[in-house]
């Protein structure tokens, strides 16, 4: 039919529309709309489109003139017929936009018309003629949508005024030609099998236009009017620029402003009204029809667009507006950034100390952040005022006060050097740098004395000209170098290749050698290269280390790897580069630093710096330490599995530290083994290379950092591997005998390499024999040769198993009873702050480790230094800081020696009677900080301590800070009543300690306000607010209501220092409202409230709640659950309002859907999203029902037995007529719905979600016979199947 019409052309259309005087107006519009729509979307030739339109409008002009609703189309048809007699020339006068206007007008009037009965001819014999244009139109609709369902309804259904079919036909036209078919701006073609639904396509386009609003539907998300305002402003920028500031309560005004602007300036007619778009029950299809006009809408010329300006978002920065640092005659530069403020004009006013204006150069950079470069040259000393305005308003912090100092220094004494000034080596897109020196050291030949040439005061400034002469394209960052007085670091990044001119100024004058010519090389694929390894770590490398790192170039294209290393003094270090066999594009680089200091490692690929190059490496001096680290965690590991290594101090004294640097943060656990070793565990959460730093006294030990390669998660889990047996026990293993144990990997979840190693105390390896038993277990044994500690390490897949490493002490037996302890440190006469020592003699005790512990009278550890004298004895040194009885514990081979514990009396060595305490008063307000001084002038330095004991025996240790004459402490008393302040010096109480201080109460800074403090109505909540934000001291809030009858009180914490209080007075009369804070009345308390009689009360005692949604056994998560509220005892015809609020376990409150059944009962529908108890507050006319709050437990899962299906479509059906039934999944949990139908022919089924826990299923069989309908939920048949 389509092909026939297309080929027949206007002649056939003219003959088809001759009997228009016999047609109903609605039928004509439907037929005309169908023809125009089809030919507009299917024809590519404008001539053919205009020919069709001319014939349609000419032939029906008479009929159009006879209809009152056709006035707009009459005007168009008149224009067509009068402007050209030849329809082939119509395209010169009618644009595609005109065609769209005709189509839109037809659609609008047809939608209005469809709300009334279709007109019928007056003569019965003429009824058949009305079907003729539909015979032409319907085939176009049936064949036009590709892949759509064929409408087999007879054309007489439309003639017979079947409204549902007519509206369905109109919606098919809208859905296909307005939403599915057109290509919108910014869209890319999508294969039909992957294309979204028309609804999702329109929603995706809107979400892309308005990303700042959560728009997920075509109904409720549009009700406040802000969404349509945002869409109008996105399509026509400036039409509604202030939509973000619109008040959601004025939703109709918001929608009307936006829709009026869209209609006037975007040609989007109002197919729906503002009152409809703001209604939560707005028709979804009507909204889609209206919104589908926006993708092709264009802003008309002359539209009153308004920019959104916000001067408060403008910021200014740079040395030219800093309070200090600018000099007379030196350029003062700063930058103004307007990115977030909109489009406006920047104005800068410079006022000198005399109030006169001075010139300022302002240049727009036209960059991404919309910045302006500003520069002025101060002409006199004093305070300048820099005023910066945006669109006539001051920006934040404007005006800026700038103190200008005297004349600048001598630029001839300033020099600059660095890679950023070299003629070659700078690459596009890579940051480079150089340094500017305003102080230079010189050495004279005769005296060999050093002198310093100082340039004086001045500002360093840098201007870089790109190859086109633009000076604001490349901007330099200038900062002083910490620790190098008079040295400034300048960094910049070139954005295009070519010769750049780097101009360096000091106090506005170029320094010697400036400008510097820098030839910037073009970018390459060096950004795809990266380096790994210890040799490029910022710290850890030491002199004489083989510093190794690797350069990875795979995927970077053609090019050579280059490494250039500069050591202290700019001396270039040799580096060898070798390709790694078996690893494509990987190069091993090795250098050996010979001097400590800062090294710069430049790594290039194709003469361009790779990622993160140059690397700054701080090389430390050579250090030989006894501290050793070993273990699998220093080499590698697996994501989310523990990486373990061991550090042994071997008697060296120092503070150990650890840090992990890598792709993710890694939690570190350290376990002190008490034998001079520690097991360190870290937990990487992302794959990649990690640098494991092992520190002693804050310095990396040799070989640190260790580079560990962490691989992605695996199927095996080393944490479930078990190792046990006598060979792993701490004691009991003897020399020259096999020590056996077993490793069980059966629960690890997968196969992985098993590695077992053993070494003695001197780190010499001991052979371990491993036998695979073939069942996931391994038999292992080793034979120790020395009576020393042995360490057994077991890894599975490179990860340490639980309890490893195992430490086994191979013996001959030890005898702690033969250990002797003697010396002045365990005898009488020990005094505070006087070093002392004692000897531990183990010569006759056999093998074993010595451990010494020392605690003071309070049980606090006292540091000791233990020295191995290499003759079987150990010297233990310590210095007591406080007097009292100390306890010395001595262990040998993990057993306490007979003399231990040893009690040592420590006597004071300082006369604390000379210590004075100042600033301590007998009384002190609660919560008010006070500072006291502890004066110890003339006494040896010792620790001062302050301790406060409250009336409730709460103890607070107050930190002290050293001062010139002693120390000081600041504290506040938080409880009322007498406190004890204990002050000690060198561990001894000072005179008059403890001091007694009484904490007194002050009036609380708490306010109360609200109508409930003045009065209310009986049996209705009276509400007021309490504000505690100004009160700094903690305290409890007290509330009580006194009056003719007891009033229940509820208090809600607003989480902002305020709370909302509600009480319900049951009878009228005067009430006293008492509010206290910390047991103290707040200002105005008690408040006098007058309660008047209220309206007749409602008796809610008979209201009940029941149903599956309140099942004591619990309900399922993520699915609608329903229960019933029976209020027939109050109102049989359900006149009251029921509301239910669900509070999740995390405290989030959600409203529910309440349906009034009209018979005194209400159905409540809610969906829990968090596992655990849900609290449901149910009210009737804002009064809680007797069972409220209800509690029900939400749990995960589903139950197909709770799904029901019903409806006529499950009992019988008629061919070519839809069969309908409903599936009710309320309370069944989260699961998928499966539908199937088997019968004589394949019959498709359509399922529509009703958004209430049910869905409607429709099918239409085309052949009679028996059919089986299958309904599954979560792959299980529902009851009744």
UniProtKB/TrEMBL annotation:
GO terms for biological process: actin cytoskeleton organization. Keywords: Repeat. Filamin repeats lie at residues 306-404, 406-520, 521-619, 625-710, 718-810, 811-906, 907-999, 998-1091, 1095-1194, 1195-1281. GO terms for molecular function: actin filament binding. Residues 196-299 form the Calponin-homology (CH) domain. The keyword Repeat applies. Residues 1031-1053 are annotated as: Disordered. Belongs to the filamin family. This is Calponin-homology (CH) domain-containing protein. It comes from Elysia crispata.
